[in-house]
Amino acid sequence: MLNSIKFKLLIWLLIIFSFIFTILGLFLDYELEVVIFDQLDRSLTHTLQTVGNPLIMEASHGQLPMELWELANITTGIFSERLSGHYYQITSLKGEVLSRSPSLGLADITLPIAGASAIPTFKTIRGPNNVPLRLISQSLVLPDESTLILEVGVTLEDTYTVLRSFRDIVIIVFPAIFVLSAIGGLIITGWSLRPLKMFSSKIGQITEENLNTRIEDVRVARELKPLAESFNTMLIRIEDAFQRQQQFLSDASHELRTPTSIIKSYCDVTLSRERTANDYKEAMIKVGESVNRMCDIINRILIVSRLDNKTLKLKPVRIDLMEVMKDVIKIIEPAAANRDIKMSLDGRSVVIRGDTEGITAVFTNIVENGIKYNKPGGNIHINVDEENNQAIVTVRDTGIGIPSEEIPKIFERFYRVDTSRGQTVGSGLGLSIVKGIIEAHGGRIDVESAVGKGSTFRIFLPLS
């Protein structure tokens, strides 16, 4: 479950929502408290001015005692009710209470005496009955230069009730939103991943029997189109590799069937009745030739397999290609003489770094082909040179040539040009191995040919 994309998306969605809702809740709570206290402080400031302005006015007319008495004995409004939560108090600098609202006087309670400050000062205290109180205080300078301290307070019970209600709503609503987000997340992720599930289902229907099936990217979600294109490309490669493997097995079976059929035929004919020693000897020679051919095919198949699997072990050493070509000519010369084919070699000494056995096999195979597919009395010319930090070996023959449309196919396994099939015997693996060994050395091979005129093979190898 932890490896599920759907589960991971849901977890991330819930984490993000939880973070957003937590920050939003804290922000709204803070803003609500700021707004409420700001409105409360504005109201207290207004009340302070309402109470303070008449004091200054009456003091200028010598009526301050009467004003203080009236403020302590009002009979209507929120300040006249006992412990109503709305209070005011007037004290002298010495701390003597000169007047207080009936809401305090009826209960014979006073507010904590604040310090003198010409600027309105706000603070939150514990008032009557230990109830939280918001208090504003300010010193008033009267015309006779005496100073009074005016305090106005209001209970915070209603304010705290509003804040608690809001927090209760947040505590209830946000978990509900969290649950709804989880359910919505499940639905959204399930719906979003549905195309991937369908895509996976289509892929699951592809087997070795229908490798030609392709994922139609027209019906695939836009985000999955690159994946569909990549998968189709991979299917093309797999189908090609599968077909090549089947063709390889078919061709290998066909190539091995011929020598095995010859062996069985000679054995059956030879053993059908008594034979002379010469007959048995002749049969064994034919069987041996077929066995040698089978061994050659099997060895070549093993080399091709190692080239494919990158397990062919090369032993790179310094090699003089001119010396290698001289050795190849010595090996091939008897076969060339049997067909009256002349071989010539020119060029110069060129040193590369490569596997001696592999490089020798490459040029032996190419020169052998030049003899097999040449005309009696033909020529094979070999040139060794270097150019642009590359060794270049050119093998030119005057053979039957290769049709231009067949040239790209001659390096395929078990492929042989049709014009050569009735002319010589071979496994069709030689040039495939040649190309593989050359590429393993970091080189390449080019072919030019014309039917009836001959072929030219150019091998390019990096210098030592």
Descriptive notes:
- The protein is an alpha+beta fold and 464 residues long.
- The chain has 3 domains: 5-162, Beta-Lactamase, CATH 3.30.450; 224-308, Orthogonal Bundle (Helix Hairpins), CATH 1.10.287.130; 316-462, 2-Layer Sandwich (Heat Shock Protein 90), CATH 3.30.565.10.
- It has 11 helices and 12 strands.
- The protein has helices at residues 5-60, 64-72, 102-105, 157-192, 194-204, 225-271, 277-308, 321-338, 356-372, 418-421, 430-440, and strands spanning 86-92, 97-100, 121-126, 132-141, 147-155, 316-320, 342-347, 351-355, 379-387, 390-397, 444-450, 454-462.
- The strands form 3 sheets. It has a 5-stranded antiparallel beta sheet. It has a 5-stranded mixed beta sheet with strand order 7-9-10-12-11, covered by helices on one side.
- Strand 4 (132-141) and strand 5 form a beta hairpin.
- Helix 1 (5-60) crosses helix 2, helix 7 (277-308) packs parallel to helix 11 (430-440) and helix 8 (321-338) runs parallel beside helix 9 (356-372).
- The chain is rod-shaped and about 160 Å long.
- The model is unreliable at 419-424 (pLDDT under 50).
